[in-house]
Amino acid sequence: MAQKNRTDTDNQQKSSTQLKRPTIFDLEAYTGFSRSTISRAFNPDASVKPDTRENILRAADEIGFSLHPGAKMIRSKRSYRWGLLLPHLENPEYAELVKCFDAEARRLNTHLMLGLTHYDPSVESTFLKHWAAGEADGVICNVCGRGKNDEVYKQLLKRRYPLLGLFDGIPGISTINTNAYDSFCLGIRNLVELGHRRIAYVGLTHKGNHPPSTFLAYKDELERNKITIDDSLILLGENNQEAGAHAWRRLKEMDNAPTAIIAFNDILATGIWIGVYTSGLSIPKHLSIMSNDNIPEAQLMGITSVRYDHAQLAREAIAELERMRSDSSAKPRLIEMKTDLVMRGSIGRPGSRDKGWHEQ
């Protein structure tokens, strides 16, 4: 029995030795560089010769060494992680943004953490508090808790924690947004020139007194063209394809149905597109449509859409967080991404409105 116990102990010690994680002392002996130089090589912000950093990182790969995240955070006083807080990933636009944010974070030798709120302010609050406690150097947040998480925002603002509003601003905090106003005005002018006068708007329920640039463009351009704004043609609701299809069903039953629809985004527009074809009608023969975001589905369906550079937005957003992290006295900024209109086959002259077409 004693012999067996000794054998088990020897095996455990042998196993422990085999599984031992290489330490900075091992890398020091392997490379000949000092521990302080090795630590700086793993810190993207530290000053070290490029050749030295390359040699140390290559040697680390060779022996399987990686700097412990906790040690790295203590030395640099940062986590090298950015938080991205979105409502969901059902919208392909969000999926594209995650890809671009992740690529930009990795380009900067940092990491991206993703959180989903599902439009629940309490979930948003939990993520913000947890990440701001040291898990992330800053957060990009598609705000859903306005009015309910105001105290959380104020606390982070008071601490000067890097927080950036994505598509929706918070007073006193930097915001990055896409300004689709001019692009939408151009698209609506094109519809008017083609002869459209019954133009509907399908969008999201506005948060407070902050209507999106798409809705402002819709109202302003109709007024500029002396077209009376018909409130029955303005449908606001949720942000999904079902909402778009439902809006179409309501609009097509009107005695004087619209000949064109401006959709807040492509998710709503693709829902409308599906509804139109399910009704036995087609685009643009029976209805013209334009929208926003230029997601792959809209491209495949041939929907005229406003686009922006997702990769550029990711670069601008993380650069803004880094600016706030590096300078606690930095003033909040509004960053607006440029957009352009991509014309496709979903816009044409007003189609036939023979009696009974809306009953098909």
Automatic annotation (TrEMBL):
Molecular function (Gene Ontology), one example: DNA-binding transcription factor activity
Q: Note whether DNA-binding occurs among the keywords.
A: yes
Residue ranges, annotated region (Disordered): 1-21
Question: Basic and acidic residues bias: where?
Answer: 1-11
Report if keyword Transcription regulation is assigned: yes
Species for this entry:
Rubellicoccus peritrichatus
| Domain of life according to the entry | Bacteria
* HTH lacI-type domain mapped to chain residues: 22-76
**Pfam families per record:** Peripla_BP_3
Q: Which named protein is this?
A: LacI family DNA-binding transcriptional regulator
Keywords for this protein: DNA-binding, Transcription, Transcription regulation
Q: Fetch the SMART domains from UniProt.
A: HTH_LACI
